[in-house]
Structures are given as structure tokens and as C-alpha cells.
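Loading example: each entry is read as two labelled lines plus one structure line.
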Amino acid sequence: QVQLVQSGAEVKEPGASVKVSCKASGYTFTRYDVSWVRQAPGQGLEWMGWISGSKGTTNYAQKFQGRVTVTTDTSTTTAYMDLRSLRSDDTAVYYCVRGGGSTGQGFDYWGQGTLVTVSS
Amino acid sequence: QSVLTQPPSVSGAPGQRVTISCTGSSSNIGAGFPVHWYQQLPGAAPKVLIYGNTNRPSGVPDRFSGSKSGTSASLAISGLQVEDEADYYCQSYDSSLSEVVFGGGTKVTVL
């Protein structure tokens, strides 16, 4: 069965960086895009960016351009999301999801989420 | 301000039918990009409820149905049940922004 298992919760100080991992299993990793979606406390869902599973190309939301990098390691079928220059309003649950892309496909599998807390 | 507009909340008695609207524009829903719906139960990750405008994944009750017309889409829940209390989100793609877009979410309350 398809599974996306994310790394554990993180606490970071403002200005620091965080890297969240997402281990995929149960499907051919390179056949699907992986996206990252976040949800601040009590707020809605916000798409951050995706990476093509087959080509490794990326697309990021304008809001996060220059501050986020999404990568994959196909040898370990793991995706990573690196967010830099953290601010208090980056406190959120970060989800990796299978899907994305400019054809408008949806997100059929979600990781369990990783809580990132930014606080001094 | 979300690119896709949803009502913040809807409510209904058990057994009733409720609908949630998702209004977009000519660069997303109106451009033909599919609409997907997600259900988020309290404290859980979202899960897909409807994909490609009208399709239900296996395991999703047929009480849930999706439709799309013009620049809008709707999610209908018929025979509302207590366990349907959750937040619901629509999602599509916007070609002007070149971004995935979500609605702001709708909280469904069963009275």
C-alpha cells in the first residue's frame, strides 16, 4: 500500500532553516510528482511547491520563491522540503503529498504531517 | 484571500442534504482544470473525497458527490451523518499563477 512517512516534529529559532523528509513506499516513486502543503494552526491548506518524480523539475508558489527548495533522492525514494529564514508565521504542520503538476492532478495520498514550530 | 472561494461554514440536521460551493475564475476552474475535494477530520491529515470533479475514490460513501459548471464547483453531502463533521477543501490549478490553489475551507456542522 502507498505510504508517505514524514520525519518528526521540529522546533526552530527565527532565522534558522528546517529540512523535512518524506519516505515514500508502495509505488513507483519516479512515476508521480510530490508536493508540499502546509497548514498553520487553525488555518486552511496552502500549497508550497512540487517536484516532478520523473524529471526532478520543480515549481514553487510565488510566496515561497527563494526560501524553499524541494528535492528527491530516487535511490531512497525520499522527498525533502527545505525552508530557510524561518519566521514565527512559518509555524505550521507540513504535509508531503503525492500529486501535483500543471495538468491539475489532485493529491491522492498524504503524509502524516510534520509540525514545525518557530519560536525564540 | 484564497483564489478559490468557499463559504466558511454550512450546517444541517442528520439526514439532510448540504452543498458546499467553490467559486473560481477563468484561469482555474473555468479553464477546464479539474476540481478535487478533501475532507479533514479534527486532528487528522486531509484525505481525498472527490477527484477529477465527480469521481469518488474507493471507500468513499456515495453520499458524497461532486459537480462542476463554468467557473464553479460543488460538493454535496446527502443523508448527512454526525461523522461528516469536518473541514472540507476544494483544490484546482491556476494557469495564470502556475500554482496549485485551494479554497479557504468550509466547516460542516451537524446540528
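Chain B has no helices and nine strands.
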